[in-house]
Structure formats: C-alpha cells, structure tokens
Amino acid sequence: MLSFEIAIHPRPPSARAATDHADRLGAWPTLAIPRDAATMPMAVTGDACLAALATLDRAFVEPDGSFVWRGEQGGRGWQVDGVIHERNGHVLLAELKGDCPETEFDRLLAAFGWPREAMAVQLLREGVWLDEETFRQRAVMAFGETSAPG
To answer: Pick from 146, 1, 148: which is nearest to 71 by CA?
Structure first.
C-alpha cells in the first residue's frame, strides 16, 4: 500500500537531479523543476480525465474536478481524495491524498495519461519534487508508518 499527500504534474524534459531531501522516512533524491516547466499542462484534457476517473469502480467524480475513490484490499479499506486543476481545458496538476494499493495507484495515474506521459510528484507538505520511483518507495514507507500499531 501507498500513503501520500502529493500533486502530480507532467515531468518536463528539463527536470534535473537536485539535492537530497531528508525527512522522518529517510533521505530522498529530489528533482529540480524549472518554474516555467511546472506550469505546463498534461496532454490529457480535463473532460477526458474526469471520464476516465468515472469508470473506476467506487469512484465518485464531481464536474468541478474533485473526486473520491474508495476500495478494499485484504479486508482493509482505502481511499484517495483528489482535485484536478485545469489550464486551457487540459489538466495542469492533480492534488491527491490518501492511501491505496500500488496497482490501484497505477489505474489512477492512467487517467492522467501515464505511462505514456511521465509524471513528477510534488510532496505537498515538504514542497519538494520526486521522480515517480522515489515517490513510490517513500509512499510504501509512509503507509507502514501510518498503519503501525501504536
């Protein structure tokens, strides 16, 4: 399972490796994303993205771009809350918060054009950018921390 509070953006070709970010979960390599590149929209239109999200079982999608998707795996419920931001009819970014199995996260990303379009992930609380692989490693650890008895 993955646990996260992120924004996803298209990963621009100009993204470069940056200094590591250390937090309670470890040290993570980050990306430097030029400001102008961070405002480039995804290839997918907002309408197409919302339509794709609406096909997910137990997803509730609102015309304003907000959605919630719930599921269950191994007797444990999970939920992702999200909101899509658009620019000129295309998805600019999506804010996502919650937890879900990695396979379901793949289905969620597919609504945004992944894997055809590479994604950059911004940790919202920390304000740092990660590549997708680093994000997934951190999100697995974050879920372990949130689900630990205690």
So the answer is: 1
Identify whether the C-beta of residue 29 lies closer than 8 Å to the C-beta of residue 44.
Answer: no
Could you give the CA distance from residue 86 to residue 107 in angstroms, rounded to a whole number?
20
Going residue by residue through the chain (150 aa), what tens digit of pLDDT does each one get? 999 999 999 999 999 999 999 999 999 999 999 988 889 999 999 999 999 999 999 999 999 999 999 999 989 999 999 999 999 999 999 999 999 999 999 999 999 999 999 999 999 999 999 999 999 999 999 998 765 444
Which residues, other chains included, contact 88 with Cβ-Cβ below 8 Å and sequence gap of 6+?
Answer: 41
Nearest Cα neighbor of 3 from 63, 76, 55 is: 76
Give the residue extent of every domain in the chain.
2-10+35-147
Residue 12 has φ and ψ, to the nearest 5°, of: -75, 150
Which tokens is 6 given?
């992120």
pTM confidence score: 0.93
Q: Could you tell me which of 96, 115, 8, 108 has the C-alpha nearest to residue 50?
A: 108
